[in-house]
Design brief:
Length: about 150
């Protein structure tokens, strides 16, 4: 029976690996955002007028990005914990002969739901980046047909 439980536990463990990989991506993004926020904080003190206003706007975007990634990371951690409970209930049920199928189903569903919401936060963060990094049309030289 334990061999069958190990086989059943493989799917949640693969999800846990995926969660870890996504968390790695998010923490890398967060590190870059923090670096950018530090540079902007320095510019905030050194700028005036329209340039200062641009720094403030970018600081607001950076703050929103930090919030989105923070929410995504929290959800991923909760999802990982739910995966741990899922695997735990599989083994506890097998070892003690309990029928924990419903608990296991609920915790696995919860883990996947949390993962999906975390991915939505990641999508929102990447959309925010894309929105803020629009290139000025004059730099694109769209009137040139020779390229």
């Amino acid at each position: 029976m334990i061999a069958q439980t190990i086989q059943l536990a493989l799917a949640p463990v693969f999800v846990l690996v995926a969660i870890g990989n996504i968390m790695n991506i998010l923490t890398t993004r967060l590190g870059r955002i923090v670096d950018r926020s530090r540079a902007l904080q320095k510019l905030h003190a050194e700028t005036h007028g329209a340039e200062h206003d641009r720094v403030v706007v970018e600081l607001r975007y950076v703050d929103r990005r930090i919030q989105l990634i923070g929410h995504a990371l929290l959800l991923l951690v909760c999802s990982g914990l739910a995966i741990g409970v899922t695997v735990g209930t599989l083994f506890i049920g097998d070892i003690n002969g309990f029928e924990l199928r419903h608990v296991t189903s609920v915790t696995f569903f919860l883990a996947i739901a949390l993962l999906m919401v975390a991915l939505i936060y990641l999508l929102l963060e990447t959309r925010l980046v894309a929105q803020t990094l629009r290139l000025p049309q004059e730099l694109l030289e769209l009137e040139r047909r020779d390229l």
